[in-house]
Amino acid sequence: MSPAFNFITMPFPFQSRPLGARQEEFLIVGKVASCLILALILWRLWRFTVSPFLHPERPKEFPYWVPLLGHGRAFFQDSNGLIAKARDHFRYTQEPIALTAFGVTFYVVTQTKQSAQVYKNKDTLSFENFVQTLMRNNGNEEDVIQLMYSSLPADKFGFPNPYGESLGVLAQKMHAHQLHPGDQLALLQNQVTQRMDYLLRLDTLLGTCSPYATSRSPQHIEFPLYKWCSDYFIRLGQHVYFGETLDQIDPSLPEVFFEFDELIYKMLYQFPSFLSHDMSKPRAQVIASLKKYFQVPQSKRRNNAAWLINAMEDEMRALGVDDDNLAVVIFHLYLAINTNTRKSVFWMLTYLLHNPTLLARYRQETGPAFKDGKLTDALYIQNPATCPEVDRIWHETLRLSGWAASVRLIMEDTMIGKKLLGKGGRVIVPHRLLHLDESIFGAEPHTFRPERWQQKENLARSPSWRPFGGGQTMCSGRFLARFSVTAFVAMLLQRFDVEMVGSAKLPVADEGRPVLGIMSIKEGHDFNVRLSPRRKDS
Ligand code: HEM
C-alpha cells in the first residue's frame, strides 16, 4: 500500500471521539473566532471612525483590516498605486492623509502649499535619517556615521565651514560646488562632451557594445536600447568622475552596477539577506572596486578625477575614515551619478523614436550646435530660447518617467496643512502623482505631449513639477543631467540614422518597482535599435 493511500484513508482525529465532545470543541472554536472577529470590528470602528471623530486635528487614515501589517503588502507592491487609491477613497481631499504599512505611519502630502512646508521644515523633519539608514545598510560602521554627522570646527582645514557643520551636511554644499553652474560644472561638462565624442563613434561602439550587440557590420550596429543607454551612461559617468582608473581596476563595473541598480528596490525596502543575494552581490563588487580605487597611490589617479571625489577623500581621511568606509560613502555618490541619467536618456529616445516628426524637429533644432558632426556649442542646446523643442521634450520626459518621492522622518509632532503629523512617522511627497495632476498639466496626463509645456505659461516653475525633489535636498546633479542627456541625443541624431528594429510597442514602465528618480522598464520590454552612419539626405 502506498504511503499516499495510507494518508487519505487515515481517520480524521475527531472521528475517534464521542459526538458530544466534538460538538463542544466546535462550539469553543466558534466562540473564539466570533470573539476575534468582534474584537477586529470594534478595533476598526474605533480606529477609523471614533478616533478620527475625537481627534479631528490628525490626518484621516486609509482603513485596513489587519493590524500592524496595515497596507504593507500593497505598499511594497506598488506604493504609488496605493497612494492613488487612498486619495480616491478620501475623494481627493486637500488635507494630508495617513497610511500604515508594517506598523509605520506614512503621511501623504499632495498639496503644493503643504509640500513647500515639508521642504522648508528642517527643524522637525529629517532627511539625514534616510541617508544614515542607507549608509548603515550599505556597510558603513556606526561610529563612522556618527563621525560624519558630528559638528566640525568652523576653522577646519579643507572645504570652508563657516557654520561649523558636520561633514554629512557639508557634503550637500560640496555637491552644489561641483554641480551648480560655475567653473567646476563647466569643467565636468567639457569632460562629458569629450568622452561622448569618443564613445559615440561607430568604431568605438563596435568595440564597447560587442557583448550585447545583436547584429553588427562595419556599416551598422544593433542592440537593445535600454541596455545600451545604461551601459553607455554608466561608462560616461564613471569616467568623468573617476578617470580611467576605475575602468582599469574593474572593466566589468558598468555591467555589475547595472545588475545592482535594477534590483535597487531590495536595498531601499531593506529585504532580508536571504532574499537579496542577487542585489547585495553586485553591490559588494562595486564597493570593493571603489576600495581598490582609493588604494591606488593618489599621484596615479587624482589628476583625472573630479574635484568632488578628491575633496571628499581629503575630508574623510582628515576624520580618520578608513578605506572600507570611504568606499561605502563614495558608493552612494557613484549611485547618484549613474542611476537616473541612463534611464532618462532611454525614455527620451523611446518617445522620439515613436514620434518621427518630433525626432526630426529635435535633430533640426540642435543642428546649429554642430560643425562636421562635432559638438562646438554645447550650451546652444541648453538654451530654451535657441532650442525650445528640446526644452519641452526634456520636461515631458521627466514628467512621465519620474517616480521619486521625497521622504522625511518626523522628529517631533509637526503641523502641516492644519493637521498634526505624529512623531516617529514619515511624511511623503509623491512626485509621480503630482506629475499626473490634470488640473496642472492639462488633458491626457498619461500621454507624452511636449506641447503642454508651451500651452501653459511657467509650467516648469509650478511647485507640482518635482522630478528632482525639493528644498535643501533637491538634486544638485540636475544641470549636469540635462546637459548630458540632451547633448547626447543631439549628437546621436547628428551622427547616426536611428531606427527601431521591427515594430516595437511603447515599452511599459515598471511603476511598482521603487527607484530613486526615474523608472525602469518592465522585464522583457527592452527593444532593439539599429544605428548606421547618417546618410547625407536623411
Ligand atoms: C535625470 C536625472 C536625475 C534625476 C531625475 C535625479 C533625481 C534626484 C532626486 C529625486 C533626488 C532626491 C531629492 C530629495 O529627496 O529631495 C536626488 C538627489 C541627488 N542627486 Fe539626483 N537626479 C538625477 C541626476 C543626478 C546626477 C547626474 C547627479 C550627479 C552627477 C545627481 C546627484 C544627486 C545628489 C548628490 C543628490 C543628493 C542631494 C544633494 O545632496 O545634493 N543626480 N536626485
UniProtKB/TrEMBL annotation:
> Any stretches that span the bilayer, and where are they?
none
Cofactor(s) needed, names only, are: heme
Q: Which InterPro entries match?
A: CYP450_sterol_14alpha_dmase, Cyt_P450, Cyt_P450_E_grp-IV, Cyt_P450_sf
Keyword hit for Metal-binding? yes
What are the alphabetically sorted keywords of the record?
Answer: Heme, Iron, Metal-binding
Pfam families from the xrefs?
p450
Q: Where does heme bind?
A: 475
GO MF assignments: heme binding; iron ion binding; oxidoreductase activity, acting on paired donors, with incorporation or reduction of molecular oxygen; steroid hydroxylase activity
> Hey, which family's this protein in?
Belongs to the cytochrome P450 family.
* The protein's name: Cytochrome P450
Give the originating organism.
Oidiodendron maius (strain Zn)
